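Assemble and predict.
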Amino acid sequence: MKGNLAGPAAELRITNLVKRFGGSAMAANAFVAVDNISLTVPAGSFFAMLGPSGCGKTTTLRMVAGLEQPTSGEILLNGNDITHLKPYNRPVNTVFQSYALFPHLTVFENVAFGLRRKNEQNISKRVDAMLELVQLDGYGARRPAQLSGGQQQRVALARALINAPQVLLLDEPLGALDLKLRRQMQLELKRIQSEVSTTFVHVTHDQEEAMTMADTIAVMRHGRVEQLASPIDLYERPATAFVANFLGKSNLLEGRVTGTAGAMLLVETHGVALRLPAANRPAAAAELYVGVRPEKLHMTGTGAPVPAGHNALEATVTDSSFMGVSTQYVVRTAWQQELTVFAQNMGVDGMRARGTAVQLHWDPQHTFAVPRTGSPLETEAEL
Amino acid sequence: MSPVPPRRGLLSGTAWMPYALLLPGLLWLGLFFVTPILTLLSTSLQEGSISTGYRFTWRFANYTNAFSDYQAQFGRSILYAGLATLLALVICYPLAYFIAFRAGRYKNLMLLIVVAPFFTSFLIRTLSWKIILADSGWVVGMFQTLGLLPPGGRLLATSFAVVAGITYNFLPFMTLPLYTSLERLDASLIEAAGDLYAGPVTAFFKVTFPLSMPGVVAGTLLTFIPAAGDYINVRFLGTPSQSMLGNVIDSRFLAVLDYPTAAALSITLMFTILVLVGLYVRRAGTEDLV
Amino acid sequence: MCAEPARRIWFERATQQRARGCLMTQATAPLAAAAAPQLPASNTPSLLFRVWRAITRNLVVFYAFLALFYIYLPVIVVFIFSFNDNSGRYNFTWQGFTLKSWLNPCGVSGLCPALVNSLQIAALSTLGATFLGTMIAFAIVRHRFSGRTATNVLIFMPMATPEIVMASSLLALFLNLGIPTGFGTILIGHILFNISYVVVTVKARLQGMNSALEEAAMDLYANEWHTFHKVTLPLVTPGIISAALLAFALSFDDLIVTNFNSGNTVTLPMFVWGAAQRGVPPQINVMGAAMFLVALGLALASLGMQRRSA
Ligand SMILES: Nc1ncnc2c1ncn2[C@@H]1O[C@H](COP(=O)(O)OP(=O)(O)O)[C@@H](O)[C@H]1O
Ligand SMILES: [Mg+2]
């Protein structure tokens, strides 16, 4: 069965892809939805495209599916140019954002649709096997309207997967499901992907979903790829202020490079000297943002000893909220910047009251830096 | 890199496709709607008589004469059509409301029951109003008993009968658009609004009615336009003293063979309606719809 | 944000209901804020509201049945007088029960040929208008082309023109061109006034259709023709059918355009129109009653089929 289902997974390569809407290609009023994207999706990988709504994810996916013609650029599948192929000539299938199940056909006929068009054999057996894979055996005679949202989602998945596509495109496939079902379907999708080992390109605006599911994530913004990396790299070493704030929370401090010490970069921020791995320096520019994640910060009373080599700051607690596993503090630095600190609830010290002066320290290895373009608040407002 | 060929959409096929689809139908409309209206326009400026033949002479007097001669009929056309439209709205709105919100799973059946009578020919139904409103009939008798009519008073051959007939004839044209727009409304929204406004009347006028405006506009237009050109109800249920513009056009064209006057009246009616419709849609669109 | 004022707590009984009411309140909050800045604080409004609602609900039912009575009154009369044993020219007073008109519907000379004419014209004009109108609707919804606004105006104009103007202008054209009026000219007129209604009906259906369905078909290896044949057409067909039914009904019942452009051809409405001046035989009522029954029967059957397939 698996042999039937598994498509020969393909590598998807996109080069300099551009899509303009409205007006002619050169018109000033044209809206650039996808702005010169280049990326490679390795064969058999689970690839996620992550970004806020309107950043061009769907448009990119539609160009790969052939539902939209690129303004310029190329799309290669295992090295073959498919940029100008009709959608029905591409070995690529899509799970649509709102499923787009054919309302006038039964579940069985929906799933069989692609096979029938290709005049393939053993349709009945293969559809049954596919419905079993998505745990919908016995639902073949129903109409899409008689299914729940989660079941419709599975039909959409089965309908695409049965064609053994070289690349499966999923456009926010879980977006319409409630939280619990979404978590369950995330695991399900991972299971199915490992069973069929097709290349999955999964579009989502949910960072948690992308982090838990994907091998590689492309973070998109304004039609561009902001950063392409593994979930861990994205989180620990975000390349831009936008990524730092889009994936989880970050504290960004304005800093300027003052020198280097071995493998460490020396930075001064509002009169405080900080150190971070020189490898984390984004560009040659002296001005940058120094970043640290709230859970990496240790909070102690003023005057408490700081472990050797740690970065340290003084601040005052302005707010705290107890969340069970941890407490989230908002503290204010001497230069009136608010920082967030997650203190794990280890039952050691009690809550720190508002107005308490505290000291923050953290391992320089946990420090990252991003270029200083625009204020970090701007990118935060965008989210 | 090779230049991308321009494409307009997945299923649009070639660039001439839309024109090929449009051509036959638009040709029909051009040939048998636009040309006739232009012909009518030119006929309305002709001079002569049926015995001597008509010639085109830019005779604008056809319009002024027609208007001064048939002012009363013109006024009645607009008045009767307006009254009938208003009555139809008052009759159909609650009916459509009932079907949309209260008929439950019998919605379609109810709609069917409402529309079915209109498959009996328009003329046969109007003739049957003639029987119902007859001088010896029970309706007249009931009106007289209730004191709404003096003894010996009539319903048939009055403006009442004509307006009632016109109202009746166009009921489905009012009911269907109203139903469609009401059916789209979220019933729970209206209930919530009723709760918020603490009064169903206010809730109705603040929420339900404004939200159903598209249906109201469509329904009133679909009723008013044919009603203003109607002449059958006057013929069956009225007398010459109720006659409308349609009756004049009918007799000028088909009986008297005075084509220029008939054409001038037709053009006047058409433009009056276009102007009224334009003003109405604009008002409804800019003030009531928001 | 969703606090429960005391007056609402007793108003709503079940917790579940309360939760729902709360959601609704949120949904309409902006509306309410715009139109009515303060909410009354006392208990009376919601009690009043309930009483009012009970009254208005039943009022609407009562009113609806009154309206139904108004709608059905003439139909009832048509049925009753189709059994009238009248002897004079006019079938306006009750003279006794008979089945003879029902048993001999074609007993009046010219009535059945008129019916046949009407059916032929209605069928042909439905075919023509549905064909032409559906193509226009597809072009408007599915394609971009120059002259779009002009096309929309051209489609709208016949619907905004009183039929008598359309009828008289067509006659003016035929007179000026010296074309003799008859079956053909009636057909031309009927196709004309039906086109716009077909365009509007099919267009609504097409616009309501999710274009992602066609994209999904193409994504699933259906070429343009298969996409049209397997997805687009089946989904648009209900719209085309209702457009055709509407066209048939409008054509079958038309008097005005027919009256102006019929020459010597007599359709059923023309026959009734003439009979109204000369004398109305009960067979006309038989026709009316039969039409009602056929339409109702067909509609009920299609409703039943919908129910079963759903
Ligand atoms: N057919 C279109 N015409 C014009 N603008 C479009 C069209 N499709 C998408 N856009 C615009 O392109 C941008 C990206 O859209 P999309 O790819 O759907 O975003 P995402 O899927 O990331 O939310 C949006 O601003 C959207 O408004
Ligand atoms: Mg999207």
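The domain at 110-267 of chain C is CATH 1.10.3720.10 (MetI-like fold).
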